[in-house]
């Protein structure tokens, strides 16, 4: 998943991570740690496991617990099943934590406290441990108890409103950005905590909020709003998609001052560049977007559709690319770092003997193993 892991460098080899995570945000974080060589032991519910095991596409014929979604996020990990609601579970987890460097969980706030496995309890016994909790709104605060999914985070953060691009109805985002961003922030914070621990011996308690990570990813709007600017619900200036015959291409004309001049040279509209340069600097961004759309709308798109677009854009150094469909884009699907997602597995690390859920302590133990992990 990471370019560093792809080169074969195992920068986190020797570290052990206890992984209580499920679905996307947490498993994304621990997958990154595994990619860099850490030993990651994933703990799942007996008889059920991570719920994303059962989504499409199933990789093994005749089985329903090896989805491509699950495999992509959990490859490189080892796995065991522990019923955390059982009294014996706490002792087992403490045995694991004794040999671990990091614990990661993404339960709703309060769940690990109920099991006696929260950061306070773990670090009281193992002060050098790095404990990372990932949640929708943080472990404390007025929103901590709300259920959190990327779709809901996208809505409450205001990003769904900003993505309307001038349309009346908010729309669902395809990418689960809040989950991936939270997982990535958690990965970075864990690495920083391990670096400090190597110097001082001190562990860390990390609290990662999906909401904060998503808002932090915004580059322009929130920084402006917090300093008194109005909200502009419109497409991003200089980021455009235009039809070229039966295809669409994406063009970038903002982000650097030279991009607009390159586009007008490509389309043969030097007068547009003169109009932009004559505008006050603070108004150039808006004017650039307006004039760029006019350039393309005034016949050039239809003309370019009948010509070799790629060599012309390359000659003028104009940033562009086709809008690809994943199923039809052989370039993306055959990219080596994407091909690595095709097949992956999780290995069984160990089994633990636990009495049945409703038995007394004198009942004979029953082995609890992860559901179909091999």
Topology:
Blueprint: H1 3-6, E1 16-19, H2 25-35, E2 39-44, H3 68-74, E3 78-81, H4 87-98, E4 102-105, H5 111-114, H6 119-125, E5 130-135, H7 150-156, H8 159-162, H9 177-200, E6 204-209, H10 210-217, H11 221-225, E7 239-244, E8 247-252, H12 258-267, H13 270-278, H14 284-304, H15 309-315, E9 320-322, H16 330-333, H17 336-339, E10 347-348, E11 352-354, E12 366-368
Parallel strand pairs: 1-2, 1-4, 2-3, 3-10, 4-5, 5-6
Antiparallel strand pairs: 7-8, 8-9, 11-12
Explain what the structure shows.
The radius of gyration is 26 Å and the shape is globular. It has two domains: 3-219 and 344-368, Rossmann fold (3-Layer(aba) Sandwich), CATH 3.40.50; 239-322. A hairpin with a 2-residue loop joins strand 7 and strand 8 (247-252). It is built from 17 helices and twelve strands. The protein is of the alpha/beta class and 374 residues long. Helix 2 packs across helix 9 (177-200). The protein has a seven-stranded parallel beta sheet, sandwiched between helices. It has a three-stranded antiparallel beta sheet with strand order 7-8-9, covered by helices on one side. A two-stranded antiparallel ribbon has the order 11-12.
